[in-house]
Specification:
Structural class: alpha/beta
Shape: globular
Number of domains: 2
Length: 382
């Protein structure tokens, strides 16, 4: 499966699940608060949760979609798990696939089918398992659990200490290590500047093949997919912070997009062109240099966060289309970001849509700030 198809399948599945959920059952959304599914509770449908802390101790008979700061799954999920957050811990059993994006991921339970993980650090404990293939990308990667088919790893420091029934394909910045407890049923193909360390007692039934990194090589499908996943996670985290701590401001920006889209677009074009010119003119003089640098930083930040506000606006629009009464800004953000990720898979549309997002988002922020200034001025606060 190439990266485009892989991305499309995962993202389309998320969007389809969100659409089905909004019209099929009451969503359980806890934005900014602790959500707990108690040990004796059973959800007989798909569950979508967004919150600062999410704890799943009960049983879910469908799929689980979770977005939050810390996500702990100690119960069982009969379907797929799609989770993105600061920390993701899976202590229970996932009967189907698990797609995880997080700063830190720890797995001590079992994943029935495939595992796809993108993270800063990853640890799979002894006694845990993946029923089919495992795709892992991150910085520090420790795999002490069992993988019943093939293992694909891309990371900084990689340690393999479990059983892999198929082949191992890995890329590492440092010297990858296979511990004495590891059992590899197939070949080990690795790419690194350093030689692999295979401890005494380790079992590798196939061949061990080394490849040197090629600075000019094309990125693999998995690397490109990992970049998309991490890009989604980064914008989600920024958006989560904005909608969590600035909910009123976020709603005001979205209302301006709805009420005066043309004005937002016009302000966006003017602002995107004028701000760099003004910044350059300011930086010509020593006195204006600090102001110019501040303006450049603000310019870059506004371009980045413009996607957040437009995503919330688009997510709200589609929720209204489905007849959902949910007023969760986090759900709107997630839905909007996923829709834009799907559009990004179409090269002919991604560039044009991306430009529109920046123009209208940038303009809506400027219009909202202008309104805030006028209100403050009216109240004689400035």
């Amino acid at each position: 499966m190439n990266s485009c198809r892989m991305s499309f399948c995962v993202l389309f599945g998320l969007v389809a699940l969100l659409f089905a959920a909004t019209g099929a059952f009451a969503l359980q959304i806890e934005s900014g608060e602790r959500f707990v599914l108690a040990k004796d509770d059973v959800v007989s449908d798909d569950l979508i949760v967004a919150g600062s802390e999410i704890v799943i101790e009960g049983r879910i008979e469908g799929d689980l979609v979770a977005f939050g700061g810390k996500i702990t799954i100690s119960g069982d999920v009969e379907g797929d798990v799609l989770a993105a957050g600061g920390d993701v811990v899976i202590e229970g059993d996932v009967e189907d696939d698990a797609v995880l994006a997080s700063g830190d991921i720890k797995i001590s339970g079992d994943v029935g089918d495939n595992l796809l993980a993108a993270c800063g650090s990853f640890k799979m404990d002894d006694g845990s398992s993946v029923g089919r293939d495992a795709f892992i990308a991150g910085g520090m990667i420790d795999v002490y659990g069992d993988v019943f088919r093939n293992l694909f790893v891309s990371g900084g420091n990689v340690v393999i200490g479990g059983a892999v029934l198929g082949n191992v394909t890995l890329e590492a910045d440092g010297a990858p290590r296979i511990t004495s407890d590891a059992e590899i049923g197939g070949d080990v193909n690795y790419t690194s500047l350093e030689d692999i360390i295979i401890e005494e007692g380790a079992s590798v039934r196939g061949n061990v093949n080394k490849n040197l990194p090629d600075a000019g090589r094309k990125k693999s499908d998995f690397e490109r997919f990992n970049e998309r996943l991490m890009g989604f996670l980064s914008i989600f985290i920024v958006g989560f912070i904005l909608v969590r701590f600035l909910p009123v401001y976020t709603r005001n920006v979205c209302n301006n997009l709805k009420k005066s889209a043309f004005s937002c677009g016009l302000w966006g074009i003017v602002g995107l062109i004028a701000a760099p010119v003004v910044a350059v003119l300011l930086m010509v003089t020593i006195i204006g240099l600090p102001l110019g640098l501040i303006l450049v930083c603000a310019y870059i930040i506004l371009i980045y966060v413009s996607k957040v506000y437009v995503s919330v606006f688009v997510g709200k629009f589609f929720l209204n289309m489905t007849g959902s009464r949910s007023d969760s800004l986090v759900l709107m953000l997630v839905l909007g970001l996923l829709l834009f990720e799907l559009i990004g898979l179409v090269p002919a549309l991604s560039g044009f849509v991306g430009l529109l997002v920046v123009v209208f988002g940038f303009g809506a922020v400027l219009v909202t700030k202008k309104q805030m200034y006028m209100n403050f001025k009216k109240k004689k606060l400035v």
